[in-house]
Amino acid sequence: MAPLVFLLAGTSAVLVAGLAGVRRLRSWPVAVRCGLALMFTVTGLAHFVGMRRELVAMVPPALPAPELLVTVTGVLELAGAAALLWSATAPWAAGGLALMLVAMFPANVHRALSEAGLPWDDRLVPRTLLQLVFLAAALSVVVHHVRKARRAPAEGRAG
């Protein structure tokens, strides 16, 4: 649930800053990118401090080197978060993070099915719905970029 709070709080803060007059923060795609960047910074850091043991335990037993996988995904989340903040790399970062969310989902399933007494938001259905929200946010950045790129040549011909 904490990642959702960071996504919503970061996005909302940027939208408020945009409404308060910060021109560069006025568009919803920038707000979503910043919310995602905050969320992935927090979750990426959790791969190294605070939740490392729990994250290593989530790795399905069929996968090798759980500690290494948690380290690699943490680094990728932090790199993706930084890349979301630069408009030139944001769509690529969002696409890569979306793929990573899909690739890491089996760890969430493994945890939900193998651990008893989980908090409600770590159970399979709520966790799946949260992952879909995160995936939709990341893909919205990609879709916005693609639509913007398609409009640019048409606008150039009209002038």
Describe the model.
This protein is mostly helical and 159 residues long. It has one domain (2-158). It is built from six helices and no strands. It has helices at 2-19, 28-46, 52-58, 66-84, 90-114, 124-158. The longest helix has 35 residues, at 124-158. The protein is elongated, with a radius of gyration of 17 Å.
The radius of gyration is 17 Å
Structural class: mainly alpha
Counting DSSP H or I runs of 4 or more residues, the number of helices is 6
Q: Give the integer mean of the pLDDT values.
A: 93
Low-confidence stretches: none
Gross morphology is elongated
What is the N-to-C succession of helices and strands?
A: HHHHHH
> What portion of the residues fall into strands of 2 or more residues?
under 5%
Count all strands and give the number: 0
Biggest beta sheet attributes: none
Tell me the domain tally. 1
* Termini gap: 48 Å
Bin the helical content. over 70%
Blueprint of the fold:
Blueprint: H1 2-19, H2 28-46, H3 52-58, H4 66-84, H5 90-114, H6 124-158
Question: What's this, in brief?
Answer:
The protein is mainly alpha-helical and 159 residues long.
Task: Provide keyphrases for this structure.
elongated; mainly alpha; single chain; 159 residues
